[in-house]
Write a structure and sequence with these properties.
- By secondary structure, this protein is an alpha+beta fold.
- The chain folds into two domains: about 100 residues, Homing Intron 3 (I-Ppo) Encoded Endonuclease, Chain A (Alpha-Beta Complex), CATH 3.90.75; about 55 residues, GCC-box Binding Domain.
- It contains six helices and ten strands.
- The strands form four sheets. It has a three-stranded antiparallel beta sheet. Strands 8-9-10 form a three-stranded antiparallel beta sheet, with helices on one face. Strands 1-2 form a two-stranded antiparallel ribbon.
- A hairpin with a 2-residue loop joins strand 4 and strand 5.
- The longest helix is centred in the last third of the chain and has 15 residues.
- It is elongated and about 75 Å long.
- About 20% of the residues are buried.
- The model has no long low-confidence stretch (mean pLDDT about 95).
Length: about 180
């Protein structure tokens, strides 16, 4: 069984077709060589050929192929570019199931992906990079760069703190300078 990033691209092309407008991959009618016998080959093609490949998993579309679960966006990258991604892929708009390569997928490091995160569920200020600091009774702002938190100061309002965060983000987060 091949490791998931070592599945040959020609094999992927025999398995899938990609629609760049929707970002969806569909199963091709697969060749007999993909199956141990004729009955399984006919059965699989009758049931799956032409259907959307993958199922949702934590927001991503995941496809089972050769005993591995592979994110659809990685398969799409390999199909279109002819190479498996060497690093991670970022979804610009934050929608993990939106796999339109030209509009939404881009190569990224883990640190770059961290620049494109949405507001945390436990954030009580409602603004990214802003929290209330009880000791001073003021709003604080901070930003992370490569796992290092930078304190941006204390402010009288959360809006002032957020403005400081946005200014720092535009200067320091070159990969994603504008929050989504």
């Amino acid at each position: 069984m091949a490791a998931k990033n070592n599945i040959p691209i020609p094999y992927l092309r025999e398995c899938f077709e990609y629609d760049p407008e929707t970002g969806v991959i569909r199963w091709h009618e697969r060749p007999r060589s993909h199956f141990p016998d004729d009955r399984m080959h006919r059965s699989w093609n009758t049931r799956f050929a032409g259907t959307t490949a993958g199922t949702p998993s934590k927001g991503y579309v995941q496809v089972r192929l050769l005993g591995h679960f592979i994110h659809a966006h990685r398969i799409i990258w390999a199909l279109v570019t002819g190479e498996w991604p060497t690093d991670e892929l970022d979804h610009r708009n934050g929608q993990r199931a939106d796999n339109r390569l030209a509009d939404n997928l881009r190569p990224a490091t883990r640190a770059e992906q961290a620049q494109n995160t949405s507001l945390r569920k436990d954030n009580r200020s409602g603004l990214t990079g802003v929290w209330f600091y009880k000791r001073t009774g003021r709003w604080a702002a901070g930003i992370e760069i490569s796992d290092n938190r930078h304190h941006l100061g204390y402010f009288d309002t959360k809006e002032e703190a957020h403005a400081a965060y946005l200014k720092a983000k535009s200067e320091l987060h070159r990969f994603q300078p504008i929050p989504r």
